[in-house]
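Milestone M4 deliverable, item 7.
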Amino acid sequence: MGSEFAEMQRALRQALQDLQQAANLEEGQLLVIGTSTSEVMGKHIGSSGTKEVAESLWSVFQEFREKTGVSLAFQCCEHINRALVVEKEVAQFHRLEEVSVIPVTKAGGSMPSLAYEKMNRPVVVEAIQADAGIDIGDTFIGMHLKKVAVPVRSTVKQVGEAHLTMAKTRPKLIGGERAVYKFSEENQSCH
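Output delivered:
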């Protein structure tokens, strides 16, 4: 099983590197993480979650957080309405409303319950608007991304046996036919 975990970690590191290259995440921005450890192991989502897989992936997510300064939000399963586990400081900084629930493997999922256990001051919040997201095992993170999500293609297509998708976000493009989206001296004069 050790080499299997090493391969999962390698795939996740590469996927996060691809995401960072596309999204250029910075300190304080939010990354939503949806992970089905059951799917990673080739089982049906929600059926066979394992703490061992969660711990293996946790270490890679922590490396990414330390390298980028990005704040991590671990999405729970639908049994607790896809609430998210974040550090208390993150919730306070982003003015996120806490909810009263503690994720466990059977109601929350293995990854969020491990995050709750490992974080310094974990809290659960109902919703966020993340700057980017990674979805391992088709957990549907879209409800927690900012309005304009842009798919990010990776050289990695799966982590373990789980399908991988990622997204970054961008500000909305607003305005009509005279709107400009990139600054230049030329477009600063009025006609």
